[in-house]
Amino acid sequence: MRTEIGSGVAEQTEQTAAPEPDAPARASACRDVTFDGAKFTHCMADPAKHRIVTDLGPDGDAPYRSLPNLAGGRPSDAALVAFAVNGGMYDGEGKPIGYYVEGGDRLKELNRNEGPGNFHMMPNGVFFGTNGKWQVRASDDFYSNVGDRPQFGTQSGPMLVVGGKLHPEISDDGPSKAIRNGVGVDTQGRAHFVISNQAVSFGKLARYFRDELKTPNALFLDGNVSALWDPAKERLDNGALLGPLIVVEEKQ
What is the pLDDT of residue 22? Predict the structure, then answer.
C-alpha cells in the first residue's frame, strides 16, 4: 500500500503588512525513470548535502518494522529526512541477519556463513560509511580490507555489481521477477538508491546500476518487501514487515 504521504505609492499612512509567502516546496532527492522498459524510482544521496544513518528501532525497543512507524517515531528535533528505504535482510523479529552498525555501535557481526536464499548467494556485501564517505564492498573484501568500524553499516545480498561486472550468478534478465531495491556508490562518492515500481529481474536492476549509474559495486537490499519514504513527494510505502532501515537525512 502506498500513500502519496506590483508596487506603487501608498495612498494611506496606515498599511496592512503583506501576508508571508508560502514556504517553498521541498525538492525531492528522488526521480522516476524508465530503463529497458521497466519503471524505477532513483534516489540520490550527495555527501555534500546529506548524511546517512541506519535505524532499526527506538533505543531499547523492538524494531520499527515499517517506514510509517519510523516516520511517526522520529523525535521532533531530528534532522529532516530526504528519503528512507528498507536496508537489508532480517529474521522473524526484524533483526539483521548480517553485519549491522548503527551510530558506531556494532549490533551484529559480519556473516560469512553459507546457506540458502538471496543473502547467501555469494558474494554478498556491505553498504557502510563514515563522515560522508560511503562504500559498497563484497563481504570478503570488507572482511580483509576494512579495519575501522564505520558509523553505519548493513549487510545484504547478493551483490548486484562487483568491480563493474554483474554478479556471476545473475543473468541479464532472468525469469524471477519481483519488486526489488538496491544501493550503489558512484566514483564521485554519491550513493544511489533504486527501487523498482514493477516486478523486475535481478539482472535488469543490476544493469541499471552498471550501465546507467556507473556504480562499480552495487548491493541488493531486498525484494517483494522493498519500500521507500519520500517526504517531499508524500510517498510512504507500507506493506510487509521490514527490518533494518536506511535513512538519508538533510544536513542542516
Answer: 54
CA 127 vs CA 81, 134, 150, 243: distances in Å? 19, 7, 10, 15
Pairing of strands 152-156, 228-230: unpaired
Nearest to residue 74, comparing CAs of 100, 52, 102, 55? 55
Domain boundaries, the chain: 27-250
Query: Of the candidates 29, 34, 61, which has an alpha carbon nearest to the alpha carbon of residue 46?
Result: 29
Q: What is the pTM of this model?
A: 0.90
Q: What stretches of 175-250 show up as alpha helix (H) in DSSP?
A: 202-207
What is the per-residue pLDDT across 209-228, written as a single tens digit (0 to 9) for each?
Answer: 999 999 999 999 999 999 99
User: Cell numbers 517553498 label which residue?
Assistant: 24
Burial bucket for residue 13 (CB in 10 Å: 0-12, 13-18, 19+):
exposed
